[in-house]
């Protein structure tokens, strides 16, 4: 007979669903597992016992009906913490016919026991830096680079076997590609699975090793990679090229990361999708108006300076800015009215006449 409130132990209201029970148990187990810094063996025993009841559909129904009169007797060789029966975990966790689910991988992956399921192996990622001219960054460009990295051996096509020879089943793993190891923990015995190091998880080994790669299936060589730089890329942005990293036998290649460094332009600056430049304008042209030639990234463009323009005003050239999927930005010309530092006698006289006119 049990006098424990299993719902309260898991921090739940009576009648909580199995999903709620499972979620609460995993949270508390991660906190109180004895192998953790915050571990508490007595508390862990208590929450595990509660989950063994509430996580089992049949036992949960009995407990909900009979409450503290519920009998959770176990016993036998599977007993663990002070008489708690772990056989239910072994049945449910390792393919038995237990009545509740208990995924040891989900629980152990936070405790350093190598959980995490069947994640596929990947080769190493590769990172490089490239410098771009300002114009290339605005309009985009294709660049080719040479990278030295582990690539699939072209001689054996990654099998590691000498051309014309065969591969045989790996004797270490009996062709399974996996090695099973039995381990013990505070919760009892469990099995871990890892890739076979002899065959790199492929289950096959060459009868004769490839002389080009020494049987590794990969070889460090130079690769020419074409990188498409998108229009409008900014300084410091990173481009990811999936599968262009280092190759790995029995797994997927890693990725290539390209960090872009954009060189500054002496005359043109960028602000979002717009480009800016400064245009020196004579005082008389600012007063009377004139036509000027402006150097854009696509060549020279004629613009009109309206009469009476003031220092710092902007003249907009539409559609000559940075390309994007939302359209192109604008090219903005900031007018800088130049005031002469020296005046001839004639110019000084004319200016004085203008002053007398109140200009």
Question: Could you characterize what this model shows?
Answer:
This protein has 359 residues and is of the alpha+beta class. It is 22% helix and 28% strand. A four-stranded mixed β-sheet has the order 10-11-15-14. Strands 1-9-8 form a three-stranded mixed β-sheet. The chain has a two-stranded antiparallel ribbon with strand order 2-7. Strand 4 (178-185) and strand 5 form a beta hairpin. Residues 73-118 have low confidence and may be disordered.
Low-confidence stretches: 73-118
% residues in beta strands: 25-35%
Q: What is the structural class?
A: alpha+beta
Order of helices and strands: HHHHHHEHEEEEEEEEEEHEEEEH
Largest pleated sheet: 4 strands, mixed
Overall pLDDT confidence: 82
> How many β-strands, per DSSP?
15
| End-to-end distance | 105 Å
Q: Helicity level, as a percent range?
A: 10-25%
Radius of gyration equals 37 Å
Shape: elongated
Q: Please tally the helical runs, counting DSSP H or I stretches of 4 or more residues.
A: 9
Which secondary structure elements does this structure contain, and how are they paired or packed?
Blueprint: H1 6-9, H2 18-32, H3 41-54, H4 57-66, H5 87-93, H6 104-108, E1 126-132, H7 134-139, E2 141-152, E3 167-169, E4 178-185, E5 188-195, E6 204-206, E7 218-229, E8 238-241, E9 256-262, E10 269-271, E11 274-282, H8 283-288, E12 290-296, E13 299-305, E14 314-317, E15 331-338, H9 345-356
Parallel strand pairs: 1-9, 11-15
Antiparallel strand pairs: 2-7, 3-6, 4-5, 8-9, 10-11, 12-13, 14-15
Helix pairs in contact: 2-3
């Amino acid at each position: 007979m049990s006098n424990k409130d299993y719902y309260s132990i898991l921090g739940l209201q009576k009648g909580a669903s199995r999903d709620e029970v499972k979620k609460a148990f995993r949270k508390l187990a991660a906190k109180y597992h004895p192998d953790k810094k915050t571990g508490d063996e007595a508390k862990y025993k208590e929450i595990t016992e509660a989950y063994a009841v509430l996580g089992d559909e049949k036992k949960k129904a009995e407990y909900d009906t009979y409450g503290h009169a519920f009998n959770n007797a176990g016993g036998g060789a599977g007993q663990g913490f002070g008489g708690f029966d772990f056989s239910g975990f072994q049945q449910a966790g390792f393919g038995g016919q237990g009545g509740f689910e208990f995924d040891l991988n989900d629980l152990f992956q936070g405790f350093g026991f190598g959980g995490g399921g069947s994640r596929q192996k990947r080769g190493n990622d590769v990172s490089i830096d490239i410098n771009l001219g300002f114009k290339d960054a605005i309009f985009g460009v294709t660049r080719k680079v040479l990278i030295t990295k582990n690539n699939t051996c072209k001689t054996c096509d990654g099998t590691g076997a000498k051309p014309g020879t065969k591969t045989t089943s790996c004797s270490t793993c009996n062709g399974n590609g996996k090695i099973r190891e039995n381990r013990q923990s505070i919760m009892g015995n469990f099995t871990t699975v890892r890739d076979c190091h002899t065959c790199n998880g492929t289950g096959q080994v060459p009868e004769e090793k490839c002389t080009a790669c020494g049987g590794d299936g990969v070889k460090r060589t130079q690769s020419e990679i074409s990188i498409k730089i998108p229009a409008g890329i900014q300084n410091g942005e990173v481009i990811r090229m999936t599968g262009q990293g280092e190759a790995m036998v029995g797994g997927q290649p890693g990725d290539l990361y390209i960090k872009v460094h954009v060189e500054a332009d002496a005359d043109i600056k960028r602000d979002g999708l717009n480009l800016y430049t400064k245009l020196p304008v004579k005082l008389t042209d600012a007063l009377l108006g004139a036509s000027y030639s402006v150097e854009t990234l696509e060549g020279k463009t004629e613009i009109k300076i309206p009469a009476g323009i003031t220092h710092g005003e902007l003249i907009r050239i539409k559609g000559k800015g940075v390309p994007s999927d939302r359209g192109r930005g604008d090219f903005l010309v900031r007018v800088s009215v130049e005031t002469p530092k020296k005046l001839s006698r004639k110019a000084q006289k004319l200016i004085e006449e203008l002053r007398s006119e109140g200009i």
